[in-house]
Write a structure and sequence with these properties.
The protein is mainly beta and 111 residues long. The protein has no helices and eleven strands. Strands 2, 4, 5, 6, 9, 10 and 11 form a seven-stranded mixed β-sheet that branches.
């Protein structure tokens, strides 16, 4: 069982930055991949960034995913935020055939 706890969300003005963090209850080196998703109200959850042991992929150019193996955390640095970035951001981990989710953290970007 993997538990994921997100933190760092909040209210920010457009153009600002936020850094989200996801703390895992296991050694993240044991995980196949970790990702950040976001879900705006009334919309489907969408993939924002993914990181594995060997590479990272940022699907939103203003965001950067990173990992700290010593702390067992995966962060998402979000810059130049826009109102359309508003939503709940979820941390996801894949371990073998299993998929784990955090409870989410709210990000609200005001115009």
């Amino acid at each position: 069982q993997v538990q994921l706890v997100e933190s760092g969300g909040g209210l920010v003005q457009a153009g600002g930055s936020l850094r989200l963090s996801c703390a895992a209850s296991v050694t993240i080196a044991s995980l196949n991949a970790m990702s950040w998703y976001r879900q705006a109200a009334g919309k489907q959850r969408e993939l924002v960034a993914t990181i594995t042991k060997s590479r990272s992929t940022n699907y939103e150019g203003r965001f950067t995913i990173s990992r700290d193996n010593a702390k067992n955390t995966v962060d998402l640095q979000m810059n130049s935020l826009k109102p359309e970035d508003t939503g709940v951001y979820y941390c996801n981990a894949i371990q073998g055939p299993l998929n784990y989710w955090g409870q989410g953290t709210q990000v609200t970007v005001s115009s």
